Amino acid sequence: MARVIVDVMLKPEIHDPQGEAVLSASRRLGFGGVTGVRQGKRFELEIDGAADSAALAAIEELARELLANPVIEEFTVSSG
Amino acid sequence: MTFPGSLDDTDAARAVRYAGAEPVPLWHADRDLRGVDAVILPGGFSYGDYLRCGAIARFSPVMAELVPAARSGLPVLGICNGFQILCEAHLLPGALTRNAGLRFITRDVRLTVANTDTPWTSGYALGQQLLVPLKSGEGAYTADPATLDELDRAGRVVVRYASSAPNGPAPNGPAPNGSARGIAGVCNEAGNVVGLMPHPEHAIDPLTGPSGDGLGFFASVLQAFAGADK
């Protein structure tokens, strides 16, 4: 049993209105030092066996197929 | 085609009937297109928009039948969530993202028809203006510049948002939801698969919608089969 983390973010060139809304709210709350926010997703996957290179490669394929939309998102895979 | 969370399948079926054709209900879990001549993926919130709009519906059993059929020329129309599903299924390029202003937009919008070669738009005139409801929260069409250029070059933008400029519609006017280059709908290379964010099925009769302008989508595809032996 192992845990694999997939972090998904919008590609930098994609407009992120949700991140902008969070930024506005942050500043309204008084956190004026925050100058930018981008919002993404974190997936925590439980897998059978070890998070070896084969397992991570399989998760990368899953990320490309399902967890992220490669047209607008990029992702990183790491063992957690 | 009804998925869990589809909302506008009934209105799409009604539009098909209004146009004089027979609507056939297709179910997400059935690997069966039931011999239909064309398929409509309706609007709504399939799978609650979980993960991404259309991301889960795209893997439904029925889609395993639809994708090869679409690649073989079956006319397919994706409306709103249906457009999102077609993009996720890679039957259409690009993606739909959160509206630029974050607000869910429910508004009658003016569209200009930019391609009348598809089976879904052959009944319109090039440049014809349509008044059709937009009803979406994630309707900003997005694609990389190379894809956008290719869509323009190949004439694959099917409908555009018309600006409300007093001098008349600007073909590349700003879209209410931030869609790139004012793109409201696109088609695949062969032209048989069309997706658009606004809802033509909600504009089939001035009694129940802002206009009857949307009926043309459903009537056009019938022309493709006019005279065909059944």
Notable features of this structure?
heterodimer, A: 80 residues, alpha+beta, Mth169, Chain: A, 3-stranded antiparallel beta sheet, B: 230 residues, Rossmann fold, two-stranded antiparallel ribbon, 5 helices
Explain the overall architecture.
The complex is a heterodimer of chains A (80) and B (230). Chain A has two helices and three strands, in the order E-H-E-H-E. Chain A has 80 residues and is α+β, with helices and mostly antiparallel strands. Chain A has a single domain, classed as Mth169, Chain: A (2-Layer Sandwich), CATH 3.30.1280.10. Chain A has a three-stranded antiparallel sheet, with helices on one face. Chain B is α+β, with helices and mostly antiparallel strands. Chain B has one domain: 3-Layer(aba) Sandwich (Rossmann fold), CATH 3.40.50.880. In chain B, strand 8 and strand 9 form a beta hairpin. The radius of gyration of chain B is 16 Å and the shape is globular. Helix content of chain B is 20%, strand content 19%. Chain B starts with 8 loop residues before the first helix and ends in a 7-residue tail after the last helix. In chain B, the strands form two sheets. Chain B has a seven-stranded mixed sheet, covered by helices on one side. A two-stranded antiparallel sheet of chain B has the order 3-6. About 4% of the residues of chain B have low confidence. Chains A and B meet through helix 1 of A and loops of B.
